[in-house]
Amino acid sequence: MGDGNGEDNKSATGTAPPTPQHSKSLSAQSIAKALLAGGVAGGVSRTAVAPLERLKILMQVQGNQKVYTGVWQGLVYMAKNEGIRGMFRGNWTNCLRIVPNSAVKFLTYEQLIRLLSYELKERGGDGQMTPGLRLAAGAVAGTIAMSATYPLDMVRGRLTVQVERTGNYTGILHCTRQIVGQEGLVALWRGWVPSVIGVIPYVGLNFAVYETLKDTVIQMSDVTHERQLSVWTRLGAGAVAGTVGQTVAYPLDVVRRRMQMSGWSGAQALHAEGGKAVVYSGMTDCLTRTVREEGIKALFKGLWPNYIKVVPSIAIAFATYEKLKEWMGVELRISS
After folding, report:
1. Cα 210 from Cα 137, distance rounded (Å)
2. Which residues are CB-neighbours of 159 under 8 A, at least 6 positions away?
3. What is the set of domains in the chain, with CATH numbers?
4. How does DSSP assign 166-184, residue by residue?
C-alpha cells in the first residue's frame, strides 16, 4: 500500500524487499494474500475497540434524553447494566461486516493505485502518486467496500443499539428477517446515501494522509525504504489519518446511524420522545430535524469516544495490514 521504489535496499532486518510488480494484473496468490491481510487487519482493529464503537453508536442515536454523557460514564454504565458481554454486543456482526469490507477496501485501493501508476508511466510519466490521486483512489475503494457490505452494517447497528429492555433481535439472521419482513428489503439499505457521501472523504483522507505522512517521514529521515519504518511510525501515521478523516465525515455518520434506527421501536428508549419512535423521511429530513431539535452539536454526538476509538483502530488496521503482507511475502507496493 505504500510506495516501494523497487531498489535493492536492505530493510532494518537486513532482508532485501521483494521487487514490486508494475503490470496491470495481479496473480491469484497475491490477491488471496492481500484479501486475507486486509480482512484480518479489519477484524483485529475493530475488536480491539469494540466497547468504544458501541458507545459511539449509542451516543449518536440518543436524543435529548441523555443516558450516555461521556466516555468513562458510558463505559461504566454499559459494564454495570449489561456486563462485559454487553460491551461487545454487535461486535460479531461488525466483524462479519468489517472483515470483507476491509479486505475489499485495501485490495481495491492497491489495485487502483497500481493501475494509475501504470497509466502514468505509459504516458511518459514517472508513476508517482500525488495526494489527490490517493484521495480519489481511497474514495472509490471505500465506496465499493461499503456498498458491498452495507446490509451487514445496518444489521450490526440494530443489534448494537438494542438493550435487553427494548431489544427484540436474537441474532444476525433473526434481525435480518425481522427487518425485511416488517420494513421491507429496501430497509437494509436505509442510510446508504449519507454513507456514500461520508465514506468518500473518510476513506479517501485515511489513505491519502497515511501514505503522504509515510512519504514525508522517509524524505525527512535517513530511511531509504518504507520497510525500514518502525511499527510506531506506521501507528502514528494511521492515527493522524483516522482522526482527520473521521472529523470531516462524522456528521454524515450520525445521520446514517439515525436513519438506520428510523421507525424502530427497539431504539425507543434512546431516541424517541412521547413514546413513539422517531421516523425520518430521508437524509435531508434527518439532518435538518436533528439540528433544529437538538442543535448543531448533535451532529458530533459521540465524537470524543470515536476519536479514542479511531486513533487505535485505524492505526492498528494499517500497521497490521502491512506487517501481514510483509510476513506473507506479498508485495503490492508500486513505485512513488
Report:
1. 13
2. 89, 90, 93, 169, 171, 172, 175
3. 28-328 (1.50.40.10)
4. T----SHHHHHHHHHHHH-
Return the residue matching grid coordinates 468518500.
200
Q: Among 317, 314, 193, which residue's Cα sits nearest to residue 247?
A: 314
**The C-alpha cell of 161 is what?**
443499539
d(CA 8, CA 16): 6
Provide the 8-state DSSP code for 7: S
| Interatomic CA distance for residues 5 and 192, integer angstroms | 38
d(CA 78, CA 299): 23
Closest CA to 193 of 143, 139, 267, 247: 143
81: β partners: none
212-217, long-range: CB < 8 A, 24+ apart: 212/131, 212/134, 213/237, 213/240, 213/241, 214/2, 214/3, 215/3, 215/336
The pTM of this model reads 0.72
Q: Cα–Cα distance between 204 and 241 in angstroms, integer?
A: 10
Q: What is the DSSP letter of 37?
A: H
Q: Which residues contact 1 (CB under 8 A, 6 or more apart)?
A: 106, 109, 110, 113, 207, 211, 318, 321, 322, 325, 332, 333
Residue by residue, pLDDT tens for the chain (336 residues) are 444 443 334 333 344 444 344 456 677 888 888 899 999 999 999 898 889 888 887 887 776 767 888 888 989 998 998 888 888 887 887 788 889 999 999 999 988 988 888 888 888 777 788 899 999 999 999 999 999 889 988 888 788 777 655 557 888 899 899 999 988 999 998 888 888 888 888 899 999 999 999 989 988 888 777 778 888 999 999 999 999 998 888 898 888 888 877 777 665 444 444 456 678 888 889 999 999 988 998 899 878 877 888 788 899 999 999 889 888 877 665 434
* Nine-digit cell string for 248: 470531516
Q: Which three cell numbers stand for residue 19?
A: 521487487
Q: How many Å apart are CA 313 and CA 329, to the nearest integer?
A: 24
